[in-house]
Specification:
The structure holds two protein chains of two kinds.
Chain A (H helix, E strand, L loop, with lengths): L4 H8 L11 E5 L2 E5 L3 H9 L12 E4 L9 H16 L4 E2 L8 H7 L8 E4 L13 E4 L2 H10 L1 E5 L3 E7 L8 H12 L8 E5 L1 H5 L2 H9 L8 E3 L4 H12 L6 H6 L2 H4 L12 E6 L6 E3 L7 E3 L10 E4 L1 H4 L2 H11 L9 E4 L4 H9 L2 H8 L2 E2 L20 E4 L15 E4 L2 H10 L10
Parallel strand pairs in A: 2-3, 2-5, 3-4, 5-6, 8-9, 8-11, 9-10, 14-15, 14-17, 15-16, 17-18
Antiparallel strand pairs in A: 1-7, 12-13
Helix pairs in contact in A: 2-5, 6-8, 13-15, 13-16
Chain B lengths: L1 E8 L6 H4 L10 H5 L10 H4 L5 E3 L12 H8 L4 E4 L4 H10 L3 E3 L11 E5 L4 E4 L4 E4 L5 H9 L2 H9 L1
Parallel strand pairs in B: 1-2, 2-3, 3-4
Antiparallel strand pairs in B: 1-5, 5-6, 6-7
The chains are: A alpha/beta, B alpha/beta.
Amino acid sequence: MGMTITEKILSAHCGKKNVKPGEFILAKVDLTLGNDITAPLAIEEFSKLKLRKVFNPNKIALVPDHFLPAKDLKAANAAKILKDFASKYKIKNYFEIGCMGIEHALLPELGLVGPGDLVIGADSHTCTYGALGAFATGIGSTDLAASWAIGKAWFKIPETIKFVYRGKLNKWVGGKDLILHTIADIGVDGANYKAMEFVGEVIRSLGMDDRFSICNMAIEAGGKSGIIEPDEKTFEYVKNATSNKQQATSKKAWCLKPEAWSRFKSDQDARYSQIKTYDVSKWEPAVACPHLPSNVKPISKLRNVKLNQVVIGSCTNGRISDLRIAAKILKGKKVFPKLRLIIFPATQKIYLQAVREGLAEIFVKAGGVFSTPSCGPCLGGHLGVLAEGEVALATTNRNFLGRMGDVKSFVYLSNPAVAAASAITGRIAHPEEIS
Amino acid sequence: MHIKGKVHKFSDDVNTDEIIAARYLNLTSENDLGRYCMESLDKDFFKKVKKNDIIVAGKNFGCGSSREHAPRAIKGCGISCVIAESFARIFFRNAINIGLPIFEVKDTSVIKSNDLLEIDINKGIIKNLSSHKIYQSSAFSGFMQELVNAGGLMNWVKRHKK
């Protein structure tokens, strides 16, 4: 019996030739991640072990991205806990403001994740790195603390669901729409405990940014991980990321050999618990209505939804191609009177690129706000919290009750094109409405 | 070991933002977090809970963010255990890791708010003292039982390091 790419990566990290779904393993981790919300708890747990060293200071990333620049005193203190821990244990990959970015955009950009890696992160959207052909999954703070001590984490080998996308994507439809349509189909627990493997000609045609958006939201279907087999585009991305960076490890050099990464493919006779095939040719841009990401409705039925705020950014859609799409629509236009448009580039590099390409100017001239990288409003943290009764359209990943602020506020989710068009009309709009 | 407590009932897909909102994530102690547990769904929840009470929910309990603050808030407000038809993966993992007892029961619709339950934690047998029914929860498999027996992941790590 063959293995899926997920099974191959997990077996390679626990020293077994074969693994089967349901089996428990203790696997070595290549990278562990914590942020200003989850790492303080992990540090508290880790300190109880009274260890003088972490398993490997180069394999720990600490990214204070949620409430930074510090929104209040508590956030400042939490950030300081990370910083002190990083100094004490000589953690190399601690990112201060100025080189900080949203963790799930930053770590791939820096070449810290590559095909075949096993990554755990105390943040549910860690599954994003599956776009690079890595096995990456969200865990809690205690798991993170344990991994700092032993360099390993326990896993149950997940079953895999294969999602096949065929046909041709319509204009204004991208990775975000693919994943929202998929979540709408299988539900918010449709892939609970399972790996989601995304395949087909449509996936191959997509660039890395769209692939990140897809894998990022695997968790919104309950998925343990999302994964896309590495191909030439992945290879190019990792090569550029690694060459930009000071610290290409031997592991990365190994990844860059095509014969190595091409090994990370699912076998023809691999086991799948389910195979779902979609024809995307008729898909419109998807909009998820309050209060679940699975509550997707046709955009044509939502044109009366008036908006107070539009957010473009996040670990789902804050990458350069997302900003380019938004700028294309907003160029020469004005944001609807009294609507707040807030744009978050995901990293400093993307921020600078947006400035150089003139995108930042387009946003500001349109009447939008161009913010420093932060998770900010996505989780109702800061920099765009909603008041009672307010309605937002966001390119983020969750629209749970009270997610972006008041319990009586409402969040709709969409791709960046729909968000930009809607910022102009003041209500949910199809990008085609903006000429 | 037995737990006896009154039921607080919730529906499907209770997410971690509802269990503990992001604005409280800079708190770390269970007692502090507990004050705001379930605030979005019921702002008086903390006041209503008596020590050892039990949360009973539908499917996919704890979906969403990886915040361990969620099971910690539940523990902190006095809840002794959670029973649901299914748990979202990260919540399940976190609960096991921090030693919050959780039980999967096929159909929780038969359990009502304010029912009094008595649970044999080791055997996973749940007695409904109000309706005189008995439910059996599914057993933990292999390694997870080892973690539960150790009293959580950090205790297991301490032994592993030796």
